[in-house]
Design goal:
Elements lengths: L5 E6 L7 H16 L2 E5 L12 E4 L26 E5 L2 E5 L2 H11 L3 E6 L1 H12 L4 E5 L15 H22 L2 E6 L6 H10 L3 E3 L7 H13 L5 E6 L11 E6 L3 E6 L2 H13 L3 E5 L11 H19 L5 E6 L2 E6 H4 L11 H8 L7
Helix pairs in contact: 1-8, 4-5, 6-7
Bound molecules: 6-O-phosphono-beta-D-fructofuranose (F6P).
6-O-phosphono-beta-D-fructofuranose binds next to strand 12.
């Protein structure tokens, strides 16, 4: 028998527009349909390691959340409880704090945890499920690279932001006869670059799945100039890299002593190389976190709401260990065990890439 009275909810990993809409839908469904209490856990799993990091979510506390960006619960893409960074003098050492999380869940009387997260958080969720914790998952990433679901909320908002940026770059590129390079997010998957690039009418789109060749890129730009089209737009995914090369990572300080590796810099490199080879003016824009910030477009509010509602239904139906997902137009579910770690990449020979190339867009090959 299902004897639920209290559920917990947390958001983990990078934020995505629509997180608050999920929190709202989970809270409303849990309270209105089932009469459960909902505990919001702050800053992902960290809120279960350090005390006093939870809040009671009520109908009042989730009012007005649909259009808001970020997450009211806070999030982090560090602090995996199974590999938790602790300061040890001048050094950081990594310890297993999963036991603290289990104790805390018990103390709080949380029967089931709703984990809203991307590949990292889902892998943590999977490891807690293996330790007996009852969890249901909601997939989240603006990169749309989780294999188990056709779409994630936040992705369409990010595409909208990136496409608007390309539209704006067009007018200034054309006026100044320049090559404009726009670097967008997408760690291992080029969906954001590909979809916004096609929607914005980019001339060159570079994605991690297709290592690029400067001859191909410069050939495309030269071809346009021969037709007296003196400007070009290049959209490059942060994870893209030249043939025979590697993605460009930077070391970024995180916290007091930790340093993390983050992608970035490929846009500058591509811009400089085009400029050097063709003797044309290039300018580089890194769109960065504008793609993750701000409120969700209606499509993402709707998808996030459907996911939140479905997650609570999974709990009510005792389908623990499952993650909601979108298949076609239907919200369904699959085991988190299967979903964690399986990435959805752009097929270099797939329909979308072929269409882009047949439209004359250079994919860097
Ligand atoms: O996974 C989503 C994402 O937006 C990636 O596209 C990007 O590489 C990463 O997060 C950046 O994360 P942060 O700046 O929060 O470390």
């Amino acid at each position: 028998m299902n004897t639920i009275s209290k559920i917990g909810i947390l958001t983990g990993g990078g934020d995505a527009p629509g997180l608050n809409a999920v929190i709202r839908a989970v809270t409303k469904t849990a309270i209105l349909d089932y009469g459960w209490k909902v505990i919001g856990i702050r800053d992902g799993f960290q809120g279960l390691i350090e005390p006093e990091r939870t809040i009671l979510l009520t109908l009042k506390s989730v009012r007005g959340l649909l259009p808001s960006g970020g997450t009211i619960l806070g999030t982090t893409n560090r602090g995996n409880p199974f590999h938790y960074p602790e300061e040890n003098g001048d050094e950081i050492r990594y310890v297993d704090r999963s036991g603290t999380v289990l104790d805390r869940l018990n103390e709080l009387g949380i029967d089931v945890l709703v984990v809203i997260g991307g590949d990292g958080s889902l892998a943590i969720a999977r490891d807690f499920i293996r330790k007996g914790v009852k969890i249901v998952g909601v997939p989240k990433t603006i990169d749309n690279d989780i294999l188990a679901t056709d779409l994630t909320f936040g992705y369409s908002t990010a595409i909208t932001t990136a496409t608007e940026a390309i539209d704006k770059l067009h007018t200034t590129a054309e006026s100044h006869h320049r090559v404009m390079v726009l670097e967008v997010m997408g760690r291992e998957a080029g969906w954001i670059a590909l979809e916004s690039g096609i929607s914005g009418g980019a001339d060159v789109i570079l994605i991690p799945e297709i290592p690029f060749d400067y001859d191909a890129i410069c050939g495309k730009i030269c071809g346009r100039r021969e037709k007296e089209i003196m400007f070009s737009i290049v959209v490059v995914s942060e994870g893209a890299f030249p043939r025979g090369g590697k993605p460009s990572y930077q070391q970024i300080p995180a916290g007091k002593k930790e340093v993390v590796k983050r992608l970035g810099g490929v846009g500058e490199r591509v811009g400089a190389e085009i400029s050097r080879r063709l003797n044309v003016e290039t300018r580089v824009t890194v769109l960065g976190h504008l793609q993750r910030g701000g409120g969700p477009i209606p499509f993402d509010r709707f998808l996030a709401t459907r996911f939140g509602k479905a997650a609570v239904q999974l709990i009510a139906e005792n389908k623990m260990g499952q993650m909601v997902c979108l298949h076609g137009r239907r919200v369904e579910s699959i085991p988190i065990e299967k979903a964690a770690g399986a990435n959805k990449l752009v097929d270099p020979d797939g329909q979308v890439v072929k269409m882009a190339e047949s439209l004359g867009i250079c994919l860097g090959r």
